[in-house]
Design brief:
The protein is an alpha/beta fold. Helix content is about 30%, strand content about 20%. A hairpin with a 5-residue loop joins β2 and β3 (about 60).
Length: about 130
């Protein structure tokens, strides 16, 4: 009588679980920018937010996809699960002009989104390059 030995399967599954638990926080948004530093506390969020990134050269990204400013509102409408109540986060490099960040936030506001937050790094965090 033969039996199936499930011990190697359980070992492999536990190792994969640990790998994914460690790697998941590192895969949030992969657009490299240097965030401004503040002393603000981190917000609690149970869902993955929609992130708009403004790079140093002014390039705009929705999550990890480059997008022109003119198409931002229509793309957001297509992917926002909660409609205009969706939580949006704007990330901008420290060298991006204030006017460019306000241009993006103004477009989001005029499109109907009211829950717009700014992402910063804490003063003791290393730059995310």
């Amino acid at each position: 009588m033969s039996e199936i030995n499930v011990t190697p399967l359980v070992d492999v599954m536990l190792v994969l679980l640990i790998v994914f638990m460690v790697a998941a926080p590192l895969m949030t948004v992969g657009v490299p920018i240097e965030l401004p530093k503040t002393e603000a506390k981190q917000m609690d969020s149970s869902t993955e937010p929609i992130t708009i990134t403004v790079q140093q050269d002014g390039a705009l990204f929705l999550q990890e996809t480059a997008i022109p400013l003119a198409e931002l509102a229509s793309k957001l409408t297509a992917i926002a699960k909660a409609g205009y109540e969706e939580q949006l986060f704007v990330r901008a490099d420290t060298s991006v002009p204030y006017g460019r960040v306000m241009e993006v936030m103004g477009l989001l506001n005029s499109a109907g989104y009211r829950k717009i937050g700014l992402i910063t790094a804490t003063k003791d965090e290393a730059p995310a390059n």
